[in-house]
Amino acid sequence: MSRQAKPGSKPYRAQLRERLVALGFPEAAIPARVAHNLIVECRIPPRTAWRLASELSLDVAAHQYNAVTGDPRAGMRGTRIWEYEQWPDRGVRPTVAALRVLAQVYGTGWKCLLGLRDLEQLPAKDLAEYHAEAEPAAVVAAEPEPPPARILTRAEARPDEEIGTGALDDAILLTKTNVDDVQIDDLWSDLDFLGGAYTRTAPDSILGQIAVIEERTSALLKGRQRPKQTQELLLIGAKSSAMMAWIAGDLGRYRLSRQLNSAAWLYTQYADDFLARRWVRTSQARVAFWAGNGIESAKLAADGLNYHVGGRLTDAPLILAEARGWSSVQAEQQVLDAIARWSSIENPDLGAGGEDRFFNITKDRRHYVAGNSLLSVGQASAALREFTTAREAFEKLPLENRWEAMDPMIRIDMGRAHLRLDDLDAAAAQVEPLLDAGVGKQPDMVHAMLKLMATELSAPRWRSASTARTLAEALLDAQSSARP
Fold first, then answer.
1. pTM higher than the cut 0.85
2. Euclidean distance between CA atoms 383 and 448, whole angstroms
3. Residue 396's Cα: distance from chain center in Å?
4. What is the spatial distance between Cα 94 and Cα 118, in angstroms, rounded to a whole number?
């Protein structure tokens, strides 16, 4: 198997089929062998494995399901088949009746669509039916519709004028659309503008405006578009949902963030776009970190890097998110490895990429995240260097491109780094200007950092220092007054 082919991917399956043909397997037996390989070697759940072995998309599988049931216009949808494939971890449990129809579509027996974990979660009635029914491991599916090349017998022959009746009308339906390119361009333009405006606008306001874009997109997707337009709308839905999840997390609304990121990921599954998957993984990693799930954050970021697209502009935020995730559990070696990978691609002159100033973070934010990760694993001197670079980069940015929360975050973490180096006066010098100016309605993460520094000032090392006690009280007062 070629090392370039990701296990379970379409190229992987194509190579597997070629090997099976070379070994003399008849064509009818190949899908079952492919499914077996996907289940055993690639650890793909049975229902997904059989669909992939049949080379069917979710929507095509749903169409054939409806054809088997005798009503092509009703019943099954691609989204429901996807939900069946996610069970039992999440999603929806398929009924035995649904499994029987899917088995006909995939050319197998319904019992082949259930794994051990599925059986452990089946209702007692369904499990009894599973054991009671003897069924071959694979059966040949009856075609729901005759293929175009099938030769008709004399008894089946029809007049030429009846063959293909309605085919042109069906094809013309593909040209019908409820959206034009101008609308799509407007949606993208609005989304890019709001992404850039987030650094200087109240989060609640941006969240509400992006929600309008997502609602417009969702409403359009309920109608009919040309395939390329549908994909564009799916990408807009993915990005808008991921952006809302990010912002909701900044506001401390983590449950909403998780729901929005789940919606964003579902959009990306249908859009089948690697860059969109990176957007969502970046948002998921960020939300998981600030919700206190550091290891999950690191793993989500690492998974995002598996979707190769572009260059350093899209790699840097994910590598740094991975480092920060590991830093929350003091996994020093993983943090240092990630920082080294980021340092090898970091371009000192690189700003935020293109028009996307939301996910492709600016230089000040990149160096801040690096410093924060290093500080969390005890690398205070290295962290201070990164914070200093972050401060310099922040001050060089035009006012309209500065993220308002960046200044207090840099100041707080520089203060914490000085504390680690036993320099209380330098720590106070960093945060006192922030306390004098007030923090206003800063994101939830700033509140958390104020409390963290106050806690560190209350440690035994500083317990006898009156300056530390006074500064800790001031930080807690600021944290309390900052909450909306």
1. no
2. 19
3. 32
4. 10
